[in-house]
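Colleagues,

For the teaching module next term, I've prepared a clean inverse folding example: a structure given as tokens, and then the sequence designed for it. I'd like students to try predicting residues themselves before seeing the answer, so please don't circulate the second half yet.
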């Protein structure tokens, strides 16, 4: 094998290790941030980083329709993935990703606060998923989407590899956990709010610009982050050390 190719493999391994380590450290930092910030009641929110839990309530006349199932929602993520097989490696890879969000209220027993979801890292379970490709019946939801939109992957559906369509949505009535920045509500005139929370909107920004929305309880979110940071930090460290040692052994051998 060509020397430059081997060196390229070592460098790729080193780069992957560094990337995994960095992602692991980010997950560790985010876990620590979530553990540090106390969950607040909405009525007592103050400006700055906040952690709140509550039920979604749509703002009047401000809802969306999801691309596939056409459900009423305040946020959707729509993924189109292709199945890739190369030697022993087989995986799904993202071809297109579409997201859209509308302003909504998060409500608990003490009150409601406006939420602007754009820019958030959203972790919600898929509400709909289907496969399409050669020798498969095209699901009605996909047919409807193709009819309403200029869909560039029609040939692939009929003649080449499989596609997977996944839709994840936030609907009125869903329970959410949100870590974000409580800032000024631009829709309320200064000094006109009946109570302090009316002049607040949860949005991106603030400390480290962390903005996280999940349909999972805080404990489940923390457990998931623990798995990610441990896998990233220890796995990345091991890959970095292995790549460096292998590179040193190889250079000494030639």
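(Answer key — instructors only)
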């Amino acid at each position: 094998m060509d020397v430059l190719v081997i060196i390229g493999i070592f460098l790729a391994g080193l780069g992957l290790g560094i990337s995994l380590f960095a992602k692991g450290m980010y997950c560790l930092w985010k876990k620590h941030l979530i553990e540090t910030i106390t969950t607040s009641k909405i009525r007592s929110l103050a400006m700055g980083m906040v952690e709140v839990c509550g039920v979604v309530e749509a703002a009047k006349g401000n809802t969306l329709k999801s691309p596939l199932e056409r459900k009423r929602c305040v946020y959707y993520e729509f993924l189109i993935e292709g199945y890739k097989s190369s030697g022993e490696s087989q995986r799904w890879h993202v071809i297109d990703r579409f997201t859209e969000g509308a302003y909504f209220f998060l409500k608990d027993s003490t009150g409601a606060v406006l939420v602007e979801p754009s820019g958030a890292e959203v972790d919600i379970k898929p509400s709909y998923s289907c496969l399409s490709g050669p020798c498969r019946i095209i699901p009605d939801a996909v047919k409807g989407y193709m009819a309403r939109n200029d869909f560039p992957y029609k040939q692939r559906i009929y003649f080449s590899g499989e596609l997977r369509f996944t839709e994840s949505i936030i609907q009125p009535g869903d329970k959410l956990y949100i870590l974000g920045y409580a800032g000024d509500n631009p829709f309320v005139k200064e000094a006109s709010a009946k109570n302090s929370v009316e002049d607040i909107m949860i949005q991106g920004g603030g400390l480290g610009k962390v903005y996280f929305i999940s349909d999972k309880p805080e404990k489940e979110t923390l457990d998931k982050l623990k798995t990610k940071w441990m896998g990233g930090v220890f796995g990345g460290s091991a890959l970095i050390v292995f790549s460096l040692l292998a590179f040193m052994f190889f250079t000494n051998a030639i």
